[in-house]
Amino acid sequence: MKTLKRALIVVLALAMLLTLAACGGASKKTLTMATNAEFPPYEFHEDGKIVGIDAEIAAAIAEKLGLELVIEDMDFTAILSAVQSGKADMGMAGMTVSEERLQSVDFSTSYATGIQVVIVPEGSPITTVDDLFVEGSAWKVGVQESTTGDIYASGDIEEAGYGTIERYNKGADAVQSLITGKIDCVIIDNEPAKAFVAANEGLVILDTEYAIEDYAICFAKNNSALRDKVDGALKELIADGTVQNIIDKYISAN
Q1: What average pLDDT does range 97-115 have in this prediction?
Q2: What are the tens digits of pLDDT across the range 125-141?
Q3: How many CB atoms lie within 10 A of CB 99?
Q4: Other CB atoms within 10 A of residue 154 CB
């Protein structure tokens, strides 16, 4: 009887181990990327799919790790919480490494440099970035909510008393408000800025830069194992020229 009980215990234990192994294997077959596909050329919709620099780099990382990439499109403001809660494995959305964000998430190696610029209508009294900080100004500045453009302008302009910030879910919505005269300028990354200006006659980008920043992939702070794997793959793709080739493919076309 004891022998039978022991045998039964062994069989049950093996069954549990096999079940756990199967569940564990299934959970790691995908790499889920949270993004906001309103930020060309880094991520945007084309022919029913999300494409762009970030999408292609993420796909190359997933392939190197033997995983299937799944892209979840959401508001930019939801990306950090999606990563923190485990809804997404990582966030990749032309996201700048900042001290504020480092308090809640970890970042990979930087894979691209971003430049924040200012879009204005032709003939605008704002001719350089310095014009935004003239004493007595009362500019209405459009930004995409929770982006670094929002963060910078909130401190540099709104808190300093040079104007007010109008926040939009999409950069395109901010540009539309600029076109209709509801705001005086838009602060946004240079690459989507070029796309918006090309698509809308009568808009120009100021020659002076607003800020220079580094883009990276964000991860939950308790997910260092995945961060290290993704970062290792990213470093290899940077070293062999894959990342630069992807960036050149999109940016050279703008």
Answers
A1: 95
A2: 999 999 999 999 999 99
A3: 7
A4: 15
The single-letter DSSP state of residue 96 is B
Q: Which residues pair with 107 in a beta bridge?
A: 218
> How far is Cα of residue 55 from the mean position of the Cα atoms in its chain?
10
Q: What is the pLDDT of residue 6?
A: 46
Summary mean pLDDT of the chain: 90
Strand 139-144 relative to strand 185-189, pairing = parallel
Q: Which two tokens stand for residue 194?
A: 């070029």
Using alpha carbons only, how large is the chain's radius of gyration in Å?
23
pTM score of the predicted model? 0.79
How far, in Å, CA of 191 to CA of 115, rounded? 8
Residue 101 pLDDT: 95
Report in angstroms the alpha-carbon separations of 149 from 29, 39, 111, 152, 183: 35, 13, 19, 5, 15
What pLDDT, on a 0 to 100 scale, did the predictor assign at position 52? Answer: 97
Beta strands in the chain (DSSP E): 30-35, 38-39, 43-46, 49-51, 68-73, 90-91, 105-107, 112-121, 139-144, 163-168, 185-189, 203-205, 211-215, 218-220
The candidate with the shortest Cα–Cα distance to 205, out of 130, 96, 126, 93, is 126
SS3 121: strand
| Cα gap 227→90, rounded to integer Å | 8
Q: Is the pLDDT of residue 12 over 50?
A: no
